[in-house]
Amino acid sequence: MIALIRFKLAAYARSHRLLQPLTGLFIMMVIFYSTLVPPGKELPSYADSAGLLIIVFAWAARGLLDTEPPAQRLISATSAGGPRREVAAGLLAALAVNLGLAAIAVALPLLHGFAVTPPAGDVARGAGLHLLGLSAGTALGALTSRPILPSPATSMLTLFGGYLALLLASLTPAGAFAVPVMPWMRAANAGTLDEILLQVTAATLFWSAAGAAVYARLRRTRP
Amino acid sequence: MRLSSVSFRYSRRGPWVLREVGLALEAGSVVEVTGRNGAGKSTLLRLLAGIVRPSRGSVTGRPRVVGYAPEVFPVEQPFTVAAYLAHLARARRVSPAAGTALAERLGASHLLDQPLGDLSKGSAQKVGLIQSLLAPPGLLILDEPFAGLDEQTRAELPEIIGEVASGGGTVVVSDHQNQLRSFPGAEHWLVADASVTVPDAERVRRTAAGNDRERASRELAEDDRERASREVGDGERARHAVIEVLVGMEEADEVEQKLRADGYLTRRPA
User: Fold this and answer.
1) Can you tell me the distance from the alpha carbon of B128 to that of B12, in angstroms, rounded to the nearest whole number?
2) In Å, what is the CA distance from A76 to each residue of A7, A86, B71, B74?
């Protein structure tokens, strides 16, 4: 399966599709860190970044999964020993790309963006929140990829609409049980992130896994 | 390999593409699948290859290594032919040299450095064929492989199919142009009206030479040809015959293997 993941990553890199989410990421980085983040505000900054970059992570995952032509997915499935492995290789390749994007988002402000270097604990919490953001983004990207939504217009609308719905749902009283983007942003600002971190992590990973499972289920009849 | 009551549709409310299909595939058999456009040939091939799962029913006994060449090879990929084949060889855990050797055999060595996007239709079909053969397949599925091929490859392909079958592999070919009509021992399936039919003559031959192989083998071992003839049904008796073939000792294994691959029973006198 590793060979198939490498094949998908090589195709994605050579297709230049990576430039789109990379451009989106750098635009967001410029907006976030055009003025230096004052001491003590690094964690809220990371929390905002992790929540807002979900759309970039979703875009990258969708782009990667759409790189392979439909007939190549059939070839890849037989080469890898079954469609499940092809689906898993696609999701893992998308996660790998998003891990790279998240690493940039976490490391960049340490080089330029934060007025002072934050404590290691805050960097770790920030990295953790980005992991949550990329898992939710990868699932959203997979659900809007071409095998599931063949029309590019529908796919893009669903991707942006889905992200908006995700943000709005997290504003409601049930937000802590949806993908809790707003709750983690608010808690980071209020200095109470540690109190809800476990709940936020569980809810985000649950919804991400549920999204990935729905994607894998739908792919059974959408090779 | 066996398909039992297999039905398939692409969505819960969509029309049935195939309904209650029951088929058996012997190891070493060659099957040509025909049918009009949109009849469901490609879907049947995808079910056989394990790319999609049946909505109902089951497919059992599928060989571990499946080679699949789609009807239209996807050239819109950012690789040269050599890089593409090397990636797929690694995915199949075989040496990238396998692709080079197959390219040489199919007269495609000159294509190796070309980008996939620059290939003509026939050249792209060759790359599709090569990738399906990178690892010796236990099941080889070729969707319209003859389309766009040059004469040399068109002549080479039945030989390759024969070799895979001789090695115990099962070959299923969707063939709109009926290019395998004279392939020795090939079975012919017709896909129409969401079902797969095997013409009567084929079914009789398969019953006599394939499905009842164990029973008939036992009977032949007893050297009771009359009894073997009596055991098959009235309609089959007329088509059942014993042919003695004399071959040189050095060729005996090869000829026997080929006959068995074609679905015939063979025995050697003690």
Assistant:
1) 32
2) 9, 6, 15, 12
Question: What is the per-residue pLDDT across A98-128, written as a single tens digit (0 to 9) for each?
Answer: 999 999 999 999 999 999 999 999 999 999 9
- HEC per residue, chain B: CEEEEEEECCCCCCCCCEEEEEEECCCCCEEEEECCCCCCHHHHHHHHHCCCCCCEEEEECCCCCEEEECCCCCCCCCCEHHHHHHHHHHHCCCCCHHHHHHHHHCCCHHHCCCEHHHCCHHHHHHHHHHHHCCCCCCEEEEECCCCCCCHHHHHHHHHHHHHHHHCCCEEEEECCCCCCCCCCCCEEEEEECCEEECCHHHHHHHHHHHHCHHHHHHHHHCCCHHHHHHHCCHHHHCCCCCCCCCCCHHHHHHHHHHHHHCCCCCCCCC
Whether residue A76 lies within 8 A of chain B, CB to CB, comes out as yes
- What average pLDDT does chain A have? 95
Contact B32, B180 (CB under 8 A): yes
Domains, chain B, ranges and CATH? 2-199 (3.40.50.300), 201-261 (no CATH)
Nearest-angstrom CA–CA distance, A116 and A135: 29
Helix (H) or strand (E) holding A199: helix A193-219
What is the structure's pLDDT at B113? Answer: 97
pTM score, two decimals? Answer: 0.82
Distance between the two ends of chain B, CA-based, in angstroms?
32
Q: Measured between CB atoms, which of B10, B67, B73 is closest to A78?
A: B67
Residue with tokens 């989106």: A24
What's the ipTM?
0.89
Q: Are B111 and B84 in contact (CB under 8 A)?
A: no
A218 lies within 8 A of chain B by CB: no
Q: What is the DSSP letter of A173?
A: G
Q: Please state the rounded mean pLDDT for residues B138-143.
A: 96
Interface size, chain A vs chain B, as Cβ–Cβ contacts under 8 Å: 78
**A140: its two tokens:** 């959203």
